[in-house]
Structure prediction request, 415 residues.
Amino acid sequence: MEVIKLVEEAIDRVKEGNGAKINFIWIEANGCAGDIISFLNADEPDALYFLKEMVNLKYSPSLMQAEGERAYEEFLETLNTDFILGVEGSMTNVENGFYDIFAYYKGKTVSVAEAVAKAAEKAKHIIAIGTCAAFGGISAARPNPTGCTSLSVFLGKQVVNVPGCPANPLWVMGTVASLVLYSKVEVDDKGRPLMFFKDTNHINCERRSYFDNKINAQKLGDKECMFKLGCRGPVTKAYCPIGRWNSRINWPVGDNTPCIGCANEYFPDGSEPFVRY
Amino acid sequence: MDRKSRHKQMLEDINYCNKMINFYNCPYAKQYWINLFNIKMQEALKELEAPETKEDTAREPKKQFTLEELAKYDGSMGKAAYIAVDGIVYDVSWNSCWGGGTHFGLLAGKNFTEEFKKGHMNDVGVLKELPVVGVLKQ
Prediction:
C-alpha cells in the first residue's frame, strides 16, 4: 500500500508541473570549487535533469550567466523566495571575512560569511556539500591560516552534511532529491544522510576476504588488502564501493589505490599519511 | 588453581555425578547425585560467564619491551604495529584506526602516553579493546 501511495504522490507532483519547483542557491565558500565540477559529472540523473526537472538553480558562481553586481542582485532576489541553500567550501570569518569575498556591490565588499549568514536565515533547507563545508576539510587543515570552520560550526546549528573530497555527485543528487520530494532526509548524529553514509567503505569492499584472512598487499598495484599500506576504508563511512565514481565505473580500491578517507570528519589531518611503506 | 585446571576439575566432577546417577538403583541415592549434578552445572555455567580474574592474567609472564625493541614494530613493510600507553604495550596492527600502522600522522612503534591523553581526553575506554602484548621496560 505504501508503494501505491508513493506512486500516486509522484504522479501528483508531476502533474503539478514545473511551476512548483523550489529554488536552489549554490554558494562556493573557501574551497576549490571541486564540488560543483564533480556535480557536473552526475549521471542518471545528470546535471541537466537537475536543472530542468528538480530545482530552479538561481545562483551559482560557476554556472550562472549573470556576472558582477547583476549576479549579486539575483542572489538577493532569491532570498525572498523558497529556496534550498547548498554551500561548498568552508567558512572563514577572520578579519571580517577578508579571505573569502562574495561580491563587490555598490562600493561595498560583501564577504561570503555575511552572504551565507543572510541566506541561512531564510533557507528552507541547508546542505553542506563536500568535506570542507561539512567538517572543515582541506581548507581547515593544520595550521589553518584562514581560520576556516565547517558550516555547522559557523552557523551554530546542525545542517545536512554531504562530505567527500569532492562530494560524489550521486550523494548530492540523492540528498537534494530527498529534500525536494519529502522535505526531509534521514541523517546520522553528524548530519550525514543515512542512505549513503551508513556503512564504512570496509564493509562492502571487494578485497574484504583478503583482509579477513590477513593477506596483505606488499606494494601498490598488488591485488590483496591494502590495510597495511594505509587504507582508511575501515574508518570511513561513505558509499564508494557501491555507488562508485564517474558514472559508477570504479572507486579507489578498485583502481589499486588505498582509500584516503576523504569523507572523514578529520580529513586530511586524521588520514595522513595516505600511503605507508 | 588456575583457570584451566579449575575447568578440568569441574568437568570431571560433572561426569562423575553423571556416572553415579546411572550406577545407583536406590532412588534416594539417585536423587542425591542428581542434586549434586545440578549444583555442579550451575557453578560451571557461572564460571563460563565470569571474566578472567586478575590473578590468572597476572601469573602469565609479560614480555618486556625497551624503547628500541618497540621501535622495530612500527607497522612498516608489513611488520606488526605496537604502541605503548602508560607503560603497557598494545598491538594495533589490525585496529581499524591504525591503517598502515599510522593514526592522525603518528607512526607506530613509540610511547604515545602524552598524545593519547591529548587526543582521547574523554574516551579512555578505547584501550580496553586493544590486545596487550607486554609492558614497557622502565
The two ends of chain B are 31 Å apart (CA to CA).
